[in-house]
Amino acid sequence: MSNSATPDTIFNNTLGEAFEALKLGANDLVTVRRVQRRADELASIDAAGAWELRAYASAIKNAFDAADEMFACALRLQPGNLNVRVRWLAMLCVTGQVGKVKEKFIAFRPGLDGNFAAMGAVISLLGYVGLLHDAFQLRQRLAALGGNPGGHAFDGDFGIASAPEMVRAKVLATDDFPEPLPSSVYTFSAEDAEQVLADQGLSVDAWSEPIGCAIRFLRQKRLKVVAVKSSFIPHDDRATAMHFQLLIVATPDICWEAEWEFCGVLVDRDFPIINSGTATIAFIPTLREAPRANHP
Amino acid sequence: MPITPEHLRDFGKRHACDHSDEVTLRAASSRSYYAAFHALHPIVDRLPASRRCVAARVGRLSHTEMVERLKEWRTGRLGVDLSSLVPLKKRMVQSLEVARAARVQADYRLNEHVTLPELEEQIRRVRCIIDAALKISNEISRRSKPTLRPDEMRDQLPQERHP
Description:
The structure holds two protein chains of two kinds. In chain A, helix 1 (7-24) packs parallel to helix 3 and helix 5 packs parallel to helix 7. Chain A has a six-stranded mixed sheet. Chain A has twelve helices and six strands. Chain A has a domain at 115-285. By secondary structure, chain A is α/β, with parallel strands linked by helices. Chain B is globular, with a radius of gyration of 17 Å. In chain B, 43% of the residues are buried. Chain B has helices at 5-14, 22-45, 54-57, 63-72, 80-83, 86-108, 116-142, 150-156. Chain B has a single domain (5-156), classed as Four Helix Bundle (Hemerythrin (Met), subunit A) (Up-down Bundle), CATH 1.20.120. The interface between A and B is medium-sized, with 34 and 32 residues.
């Protein structure tokens, strides 16, 4: 890092790098050391930022409990900082820790009211891990408070066509413009969501369990998820189901191998929501196969 | 037979290219699913009606009925050889459900984009389903008899019924 870099620059650059490593699932010791070194650089001028960077370093090493403790330290130093809360949720989301996302969302929810950017970001994060009921409720609250919930209305369904401001709107990442935070796109109605799950005797969070499992599975494979799309799929002879598409930075062959293997994982895990056909999960590639043309 | 499931699958493959518009991508995704559906049809048609699906009561082999029959089919009871195919059959069913969801999305969800990568994934998915179906079918044929009659197959299934 250049000597002229400001603390904010150091923090933001390191944040982007840390999230890339977290999404990729790479237990990369070089990145860990770099993030820790930046944390040490920041410690004397931005203690909260330093704790947060240490949290990312721990999370990259898959030491998630330690990461949570460090995030808690950062939050104690800046109790009013909603961005820390949002990024804590983001860290939990990209690492597939759905249970903790739910727990932290409940804890953070009261402080979100009124901050439209933070609310929008959390809506997108909740969608990313399939916590669609909470996402929808928060989205309704955002609209009631006068914020722009984004997306368009389609006959009672609500679509978030692009992710809110704090989470970049672009769905696909490129080398030039990597995404620091995850994004999600979804269309659903609260009534449908609740009815579908009630019909199946399942909790409103049931969708998130296999999604979290998929995110963790893909991290183990070092495959990066850049977005999660959720769609209601109507059926004429059974309850409406949810179709999740995880957009992955991989070529079609790699992506397909992962999806087929994951079908086996779902069989082993025996999720009721999958067995009942109320949720399906597809992996979608974002890279093309290497060209076979005669380029030098 | 005028056309085969392979023709439907080839339609999908032929249109999985950069210059296809979204209408074509949707049509190709949908036809690809039907390639899997028709490839499985001869196997599933010989299985007993499912316990859960409404369509089964009127003798119709709907999409849901196909999945339910495959789920209820206790492949392992057919013999030691086939018991090794149980995990394959379960994966195939999972994948069939995903392919169906992609097909419904392509046919009915006009407010959502269907992209070339999604079609490419659908084609791979369908190829794997057809391969799995073929493997299961061959294994059944390879066993003691060339084909199982419906009553024989039914005999291999558990007789108890849920209310």
